[in-house]
Amino acid sequence: MTPSIDKQLESAIADTLRFGVLLAAIAVVVGGGMYLHHPSTTLPDYSHFHATPTPLRTVSGVLRGVWQLDAKSVIQLGILILIATPVARVIVCIIGFSRQRDRIYIAVSTTVLIILTYSLFQGGR
Amino acid sequence: MNILEFTSLLFGASIFAGLLGALTGLGGGVVIVPALVLLFKVDIRYAIGASLVSVIATSSGAAVAYVREGLSNIRIGMFLEVATTAGALLGAYLTAKLSSHWIAIVFGIVLLYSAYASFTKEPEGSAAFKPNTFATKLKLSGSYVGSIVQERYYAQNVPLGFGIMFGAGTLSGLLGIGSGAVKVLAMDHAMKLPFKVSTTTSNFMIGVTAAASAGIYLFRGYIDPGIALPVMLGVLVGSLVGARILMRSRVTSLKVLFSLVIVALGVEMIYSGLRGKI
Question: Where are the beta strands (DSSP E) in chain B?
Fold first, then answer.
């Protein structure tokens, strides 16, 4: 446990989180501006659950929507970036612990990454 | 109501929820979900989806400062995240299985417990300084600047703390909240970590825990951009303002008032759940 390397890991984690949240917030604000600029449609009925349209529920669908400048897709892109931020933080931890050759915590962080990956790819079905 | 009015009202309510969440230390999620369900008549699944998104934003934002100051214990956080993310998967699975009445009732109970827990004072100096097998092998220790000198602490009752954390993760995935009150139970009472370490490490873990269920929510269609937009930005703004107020002044009297609001929301959630109105 070398304190200086721990400090490096801490600032790498802080940078990752700050960058992720900022990027996500920018995307949500831009998408929000587009969404409110043309409030043509009437308010959807949110009192009963019918799940969001399918394109807004997949990464490829959201990206296609962003390409077509669809406001809701831009907001959803920001939310995807936000969800990806903690995942990136776990990857930063794995790299940091690898540098310290901390076998136990490489294993612990990798386990968390596997659970997150499982939820993102399998849990959706 | 048109989209502009709905978004503005929701934005205002979310700022208030973020403010309340920060001042009571319970997080914005516990206020915004009941507000969406009871005031805006939004289906509880949309409410949970939007709340979880705001929880990731606020906790990650706050973690930037805590981690940089070396307050959060990265190893303890990472180790307990195995439990919370696994629990979050179970919670997100349960959300699809349980009816919204039951989710509302469980939410109400958690609200009441959170209000109660925010008033039970943690005994000062309860931190444990005795090394033990688990803490040594898993490096679940650290040092922090205590009252006078740098002090070294070791996590106690590790298996129990890990187990409670699994429960905290499940509640987070089921209800779309950070479940800070349950985490305090695990880290302060079971593992006997110093208060500053437990609160900042708990905050550090919330983002990863929430991400485990947020992916599932998104792919199931719980996260609607029209609701998530004002909720995420509003709660973020509210909690930033709340954190500023906390740094400047003691807010004991406000805390009593806010806790009464939390209790009222909890009772209303349970009542509406039992009556089948949610």
Answer: 141-145, 150-154
